[in-house]
């Protein structure tokens, strides 16, 4: 599962950092490889954004890994564990 966690756009709207959370229960899937594959296709993604957005400039995009959902999942596990004890 891939989720967009956050998007930081510069004030001039020319740069965007897109934070992705990549979660998989399979040991065969490496989230870092998926992020690299997405980064390789960022020109296609930028082109699609340009078609979808009505803006003067399409921002240069950079994909970054976010472990925010994993962090929340660990907190939920700890909370549930403490409740059950």
Poorly predicted segments: none
**Biggest sheet, in brief?**
3 strands, mixed
The helix fraction, in percent, is 40-55%
* Through-space gap between termini: 31 Å
Helix/strand class = alpha+beta
Rounded to the nearest angstrom, the radius of gyration is 17 Å
Structural notes for this entry:
This protein has 85 residues and is an alpha+beta fold. The chain is 45% helix and 26% strand. Strands 1-2-3 form a 3-stranded mixed beta sheet, sandwiched between helices. The two termini are 31 Å apart. The model has no long low-confidence stretch (mean pLDDT 86).
Quickly describe the structure:
The chain is an alpha+beta fold. It has helices at 31-40, 42-52, 68-84, and strands at residues 2-9, 15-22, 60-65.
